[in-house]
Amino acid sequence: GAVVSQHPSRVICKSGTSVKIECRSLDFQATTMFWYRQFPKKSLMLMATSNEGSKATYEQGVEKDKFLINHASLTLSTLTVTSAHPEDSSFYICSARGVLGGDTEAFFGQGTRLTVV
Amino acid sequence: GQQLNQSPQSMFIQEGEDVSMNCTSSSIFNTWLWYKQDPGEGPVLLIALYKAGELTSNGRLTAQFGITRKDSFLNISASIPSDVGIYFCAGLRQAGTALIFGKGTTLSVSS
Asked: b/e map of A51-64 (b: 16 or more CB within 10 Å)?
């Protein structure tokens, strides 16, 4: 299957600082990338959808100024959590979809565990 | 956000037993996907279903796309300890839109 690499896998940051998470599709071009947040023992909550070269579409209740998404190329999307607070601590997961999966299957990164102290 | 109805929420079984879980929706989907998530990892795609009535196997896993296009089930036969994890169903209404996920089924297997 297709490989999606997410980096870093774990990050601890101080309150008020910003953190950038990268999501790369390694062996296919991702026309669309999605960012999810997952709380312990809960399902994945979609935060935003991004298409290469255009602005991300955010789900209701997700602050676009706080969670900055950039999808500059067909293989890379980044999520920047700005001015992080302890309540932003969570498991963030990206997924990518492209022609390889018939544009219907989505492949996930390994996830990033963010802890804000 | 919108979610699919996935059941059961959790299962505790003995090694060697068969397992069945399902997802239902009030609306139609064009694609059904089943994922498995291990702790601290991202979901891994197990099976993808594209046509109503389609029955697809992947090793000991079998999944079906319901005829009404509003449901899907996943069966695991002869479970083993490494089957432990959270299984999610996901539905796609049309290409280009985001997947809609079920709440997950947590599977525990005792040997």
From this structure: bbeeebebeeebee
